[in-house]
Amino acid sequence: xxxxxxxxxxxxxxxxxxxxxxxxxxxxxxxxxxxxxxxxxxxxxxxxxxxxxxxxxxxxxxxxxxxxxxxxxxxxxxxxxxxxxxxxxxxxxxxxxxxxxxxxxxxxxxxxxxxxxxxxxxxxxxxxxxxxxxxxxxxxxxxxxxxxxxxxxxxxxxxxxxxxxxxxxxxxxxxxxxxxxxxxxxxxxxxxxxxxxxxxxxxxxxxxxxxxxxxxxxxxxxxxxxxxxxxxxxxxxxxxxxx
Length: 243
Description:
Number of domains: 2
CATH class of the largest domain: Alpha Beta
CATH superfamily of the largest domain: Alpha/Beta hydrolase fold, catalytic domain
Helix content: 40-55%
Radius of gyration: 17 Å
Oligomer: single chain
Strand order of the largest sheet: 2-1-3-4-5-6
Order of helices and strands: EHEHEHEHHHHHEHEHH
Distance between the termini: 24 Å
Largest sheet: 6 strands, parallel
CATH topology of the largest domain: Rossmann fold
Strand content: 5-15%
CATH architecture of the largest domain: 3-Layer(aba) Sandwich
């Protein structure tokens, strides 16, 4: 008889909160999902991971989106025995470059000088599929979520990202069911970047979400939920297979 997977813990990305995972919390309700809030007060990825572990059950299935994927890897570093399976969506494992630092600091200056809403208006549109940018209802919901944390939280998370640990040595050591997924039109965290992450995790399934940018959980909710359900139903000791 198949063993039920450990409860699902969902980690949001930069300036996101639990609402980014709302479609999956609803559609995967039979896996007892819990989405972590937006890491209030945390100034490092390790601190974000520690917050998440305090909220988590003793053993859990772990999924992280964007920066949340990096937080998920820090959770694996801190408590590998508690993580039954791992899913990483639209994320990266590379160290920061000078270009990245300059871009993040420019956006942070906008947030501090012009307000968080101005930063969001500059940063968000390239993150989503071009066809979504004119959808007022969709974009206004994302804008509200991203702006809710304010400039101070944004500053904390920018500095956390620029001081991030190198998670690459962790990838080859993870031995549970693993999934890596990415939006086909993700211009920030590309298909090839995520394909390389999947190749570094033994037996990981790699999935591309069609007609989707960086915000996959809300841009392609059905595709994301389907991939996560398949991953959750993969028995420990076996490997998922790409469709």
